[in-house]
């Protein structure tokens, strides 16, 4: 019987962070379950051309694993090397089960443990379950009439087919969000024609990237210098919340800068009009790129807005709502992920057979974005309302670990078997989150974004400073929990 104290679902940064924190707490009876046939998560899966981080690399890294980055905003290849660096530094390879796709999990109240069904890899048991599958792991592909008839090549940016040579081809990119803004400049110079289908334009700010010289990379290898740089970047980025939530003049100033950037990079007033959002900056994810706009001005690139959107797809290409037919060889879906309602993709059955899908039927919710009543010993990394729009998601993940490890350590110390948050504690926390959300641009900025669930609640974001979230998760509050 494969039974462990802890099972971690996912092997990306969330899973790695959980594993290292368990080891530091003296807990080595755990396994990581990875559905793919390779270790590493987002930055090993998303290998599309131009893929890169949009948070400065020294901050977008785990505090316990500094790294000599080659540039301020690392590309996918370097992020993958960093992932491998963390895995090897902490000897995590021996603790992962690959191709272990979790199909469902069930709480056993008598045994006080979770039963995890993985299909081909069989059944696992664990006292504690940490879901670290991540919010950007379930790609979304919209449905269009006739799309199954298309005879060309098609794939999502999340699963880029590197065996397909797009050079000299006619390509359509569906979507204009963060991944599209990276793919488009990367492939535009090499394709014959590039058709970009944009539902709504995004606000874009310049990318202040720089390559680190030998001396700077050497300094990054010195822990005090690395720590100082991280905190300087952290506090610089933390001030962005003032615009997102507390100051309308501040957000108007940022929006004015974005409009100036757009005018400077897109001289054509017709194209510029297509690229000007009609919502407040920050309501949707702000794109950070100095190459996106110039790519759209290339003679072989055509931007189609909502008025010229896709009506249907046939064997040779796309039919637009205004009656055009566009022949293409490749369709790239850059249409994002189910990051709210699909935070956990497999069925979860808690105490008394309570189903997570029923609890989340109205909208996903969790105490500290991490735990739920009726689901003992279950912790969700990057769960509801833990997203952060202004700084590194890894800061939030590490904050969650303070709470998760404290829960596990407390039970171990007291000789108890299970812990679950009280319903009233979760309810109070959730009400606070959505009360504070009303003041943010994510709720009141005049857009509909992937930050929102089908219910209209903003589920992806935490409505405040990241250090506020850190304070909330710093230590377990026993009065908010049932221990048994």
Task: Please give a handful of descriptors for the protein shown.
484 residues; alpha/beta; globular; 2 domains; FAD/NAD(P)-binding domain; 20 strands; eight-stranded mixed sheet; single chain
Tell me about this structure.
- It is built from 15 helices and 20 strands.
- The radius of gyration is 23 Å and the shape is globular.
- The relative contact order is 0.14.
- Helix 7 packs across helix 8 and helix 12 packs parallel to helix 15.
- The protein folds into two domains: 2-39 and 92-138 and 338-483, 3-Layer(bba) Sandwich (FAD/NAD(P)-binding domain); 147-202 and 243-333, FAD/NAD(P)-binding domain (3-Layer(bba) Sandwich).
- It is 31% helix and 17% strand.
- Strands 1, 2, 3, 4, 5, 6, 17 and 18 form an eight-stranded mixed sheet that branches. The chain has a five-stranded parallel sheet with strand order 7-16-8-9-12, with no helix packed on it.
- The chain has helices spanning 13-24, 42-45, 76-89, 178-187, 214-220, 223-238, 240-246, 248-265, 269-274, 292-296, 356-359, 393-414, 423-437, 441-444, 466-473, and strands at 2-9, 30-33, 96-97, 104-108, 113-117, 123-131, 153-156, 170-174, 193-197, 204-205, 287-288, 301-304, 310-313, 317-320, 325-327, 330-333, 348-349, 378-380, 419-421, 481-483.
- By secondary structure, it is α/β, with parallel strands linked by helices.
